[in-house]
Amino acid sequence: MNEKQKKPFYKRWWFILLVIIVVIAVLGSGGDEDAQKEVAGDGESSQIENNVASKDSEQEEKEKKEETEKPKESAKDDVPREYKNALKAAQNYVDIMAFSERGLFEQLTSEYGDQYPEEAAQYAIENVEVDYNEEALEAAKNYLEIMPMSDKELFEQLTSEHGDKFTEEQAQYAIDNLPK
Hints:
Elements: H1 13-28, H2 33-36, H3 45-50, H4 52-77, H5 81-96, H6 101-109, H7 118-127, H8 132-146, H9 151-159, H10 168-176
C-alpha cells in the first residue's frame, strides 16, 4: 500500500501561521525605551563642584569613544530598513525554533513566509547571531521527543531537501552530541 506520509508539525499551515503571528506580536510589542527613562533632578551644588574635574576628564574620554564609534554607527545607519527587518525576523525565528541556514533563508524569502528580497535575506543570514550546529542539535532533540528514530533516519531528516536542510556536518554534530 502507498501510505500518505505525514508532514512534520513545523511544515503544517497552522504552525507556520502561529509562528508568523508570534513574530508579528514580538516585533509589534517593542516599546520606546527613551520614554521609560527618568530624568534625574538637580543635585546639591556642592557635590557638583567637587566632581567638576573628574567629569571633565570623563567627558573627554566619552567624546573620544564617540568619535571612534561614529563609523560603526554610520555603517549601521546605511543598512536599508528592509534588511534590518529581515535580520530582526531571522533572529526571532532562530530564537523560537531550530533553523538551518538554508531553511531560514527559504523562510525569509518564501511567498508563504516573510517575502523578503533575497538580498535582504542574505544580509540577515550573514548577520544573525546563531550557531547552526546547536540549531541542528536542538532540531534533533525535538524530533526524538516526538518519535524515536535511528541515527540514520535522524540524519536523513536533518539533511533532507524536504526536512530541515542542515549540512551533513551539522547533522553529524547533532547526532554526535545527543544525550546518551
